[in-house]
Every structure is written in C-alpha cells, then in structure tokens.
Specification:
This protein is α+β, with helices and mostly antiparallel strands. It has helices spanning about 10-25, 65-85, 110-125, 170-180, 190-195, 205-210, 225-235, 255-260, 275-285, and strands spanning about 35-40, 45-55, 85-95, 125-135, 140-150, 165, 215-220, 240, 265-270, 290-295, 300-305, 310. The chain has a 7-stranded mixed beta sheet with strand order 7-9-6-10-8-11-12. Helix 2 (about 65-85) runs parallel beside helix 3, helix 2 packs parallel to helix 6 and helix 4 (about 170-180) crosses helix 5. The protein starts with 11 loop residues before the first helix and ends in a 12-residue tail after the last strand. The relative contact order is 0.17.
Length: about 325
C-alpha cells in the first residue's frame, strides 16, 4: 500500500496535490482521502488535519473569535465524520497577530479562539490534547483531529448501481456567505448565521451510515458537484445526479445548492438495497433527512440532469484556479 494515492477529481488545487503525491513517492502512503488510517492493536486510527487562514477561510469582521475557533475545528472533525469515525481529540496550531488585541473582558484573542475550539470538540465528545502557539501576520487555526473507526469508509468503494444520498439540506452556507459579502452580516436569520458560523460535523450520521454498509463517503466542503467528482475518480465510476432531487435550504435554488461549499453534510454511496425504509430509520436515529439524489453508474465523472435535461455540473471550490 505504501506510495499509493487515490485518484482525485479535476481542478488546479488537485493538480498540485497529484504533483506532490508523485514527488513523495514511497514516502507517501494512501494519500488523497478524508483521513489517514492506521491499524494499531486491532483498532483503526483515523487522522486528519485542516488549516483555516484569515482572509481565505474566514474574516474577523464577519465572525467572533470564538466562532472562528469552532468553525475551524468543525471543518476538521467533518473529515472524521466522512470516514465513519468516532472522535477522540484534537491538536491545534494557532497563529495570532501580535499587534491586534480583540479582547472580550480579560480574554485574549488566543483564549477566545481556543474557547471555540474546545466547545466544538466537546460537542462531539472529544478533548483538546495539545498544540502550538505562534505569532503570525494573520490569524490561522490548524486543527489535527484523531478518531477511531470500527468500519472506515473511504472514497474509493462506490460501485455502479449504488444509490447516491446526501444528509441534511444544502445551500445554507452559500446563502449566508452571500449575505455577509453584501454587508448584511447582522441582518439575516440567526439560523442561517449559525449554519455558516457554527457548522455541525455529522459524526453520528457518518457512524450510522458506516454501520449500515456505506460503500463510499465524503464531506461536502468544496461543493456537491466537486466532491462528487472526487468520489467518482477515487472509485472509478460515474456519478449521475438529478438536480431536482437535491434537498435545498429555504430560498436556495438547486443549482446554487450544488455550488455551495463548506456545507459539511455527507455525500454517501449506499448499496442498491438501501432505500426509503433505511432513510426513515436514519432520520429517526439522527434527526436529519437523508435524500437520494442519484446513483453511481458505469463510466467516469459527474453527470447532472434537471428534469431529464443535461446540465453542466458547476465546478467545485478551487484554491488554485486556472489563470
């Protein structure tokens, strides 16, 4: 297994990752999935790391420092959810500008951010295990998460005939981002603000789906179409999505919903036998809807239709778009 990497979908960011995988050669191991998986004493340890950088992933005029800590931690924990893992703890490298003092009472910026980190970790039964603190030109929160997986679910297990399902509703994060960019950060619904500022990693949902035979799973961070492309590439299948089936946040069109990133819902390929009864059982267990939006098919890439008409899938978020 050493040196093998999973196939990634298209995009400039992923071209860079493919080049890195080649450069690492035998120093790399099973690269390209949501988590690294290590077998230790009969258990599987799941590890992932996620960096949030001011000006790229968040703005301090949009979010309180505690919200920044929560959001960065939830993004990293979402990778564990996509593997079907149970969180154990988090490690955090925190960069704080030395010339900015956004205090709340007697709490320094570092304390406020870490309070958010701790709250997000506690929400899934995990602990803060350690980290590092440095002075930085911009705020950065680099979160490493550790968990255990009874039955890890990778991106590479989907097969033609599997149903394609998504948890929750999509588009809320994109709608909130649009409101923030328009300067309406204090004038939109609290539930919508929470969707952006305090996303909920779907840990219980991921574990439930893993136990029920999920074949492939990914968290939706770069947009549904883009992340579906990664499942298709890793599994060597095509993915067919029916746009009219996509569950949308109120006020969001299906096309906007599939573009919306940082949703942190789960996209999962389930065996053909999993159907409506299974989705209802999922809802009773988790309090979330589970919606079938398409299927895995023979072929390659993502195909999208709307009421039977072909639609060009929108690109996912790309840190390094083509110039």
């Amino acid at each position: 297994m050493t040196g093998r990497s999973l196939r990634l979908g298209p995009g400039g960011e992923f071209d860079r990752l493919r080049a890195i995988f080649v450069a690492l050669g035998t120093a790399g191991r099973d690269l390209g999935d949501d988590c690294a998986l290590l077998s230790i004493g009969g258990r599987t340890l799941a590890i992932s790391i996620d960096l949030s950088l001011e000006g790229v992933h968040f703005r301090t005029d949009w979010l309180a420092l505690r919200e920044i800590g929560w959001r960065a931690t939830a993004a990293a924990l979402s990778d564990l959810a996509a593997e079907g893992a149970t969180p154990l703890g988090v490690l955090v490298s925190l960069g704080v500008p030395g010339n900015r003092q956004r205090r709340t009472g007697n709490a320094s910026p570092a304390v406020q951010i870490m309070a958010g980190v701790g709250a997000a970790a506690r929400s899934v039964g995990a602990s803060v295990l350690g980290g590092d603190l440095v002075r930085s030109p911009r705020y950065l929160v680099d979160v490493c998460v550790l968990g255990v997986a009874q039955r890890p679910v990778r991106r590479s297990g989907a097969r033609p005939g599997d149903g394609l399902w998504v948890t929750g509703r999509l588009g809320g994060a994109g709608l909130a981002l649009a409101a923030l960019r328009a300067g309406r950060g204090r004038r939109f619904a609290p539930a919508l603000r929470r969707r952006f500022a305090r996303p909920v990693p779907r840990i219980a949902a991921g574990r439930w789906l893993a136990r029920r035979g999920a074949r492939a799973m990914i968290d939706i961070s770069d947009g549904l179409a883009g992340d579906a492309g990664h499942v298709a590439a890793a599994s060597g299948v095509g993915v067919a999505i029916e746009l009219e089936r996509v569950p949308c946040w109120p006020g969001v069109t299906p096309l906007a919903a599939v573009r919306s990133g940082e949703e942190y819902e789960l996209l999962v390929a389930m065996p053909r036998r999993f159907g409506t009864a299974g989705a209802k059982a999922f809802g009773r267990a988790t309090g979330l809807p589970l919606t079938r939006i398409g299927a895995c098919i023979a072929g390659r890439g993502v195909r999208m239709t709307h009421d039977g008409r072909p639609i060009t899938p929108p690109p996912g978020f790309d840190h390094f778009p083509a110039q």
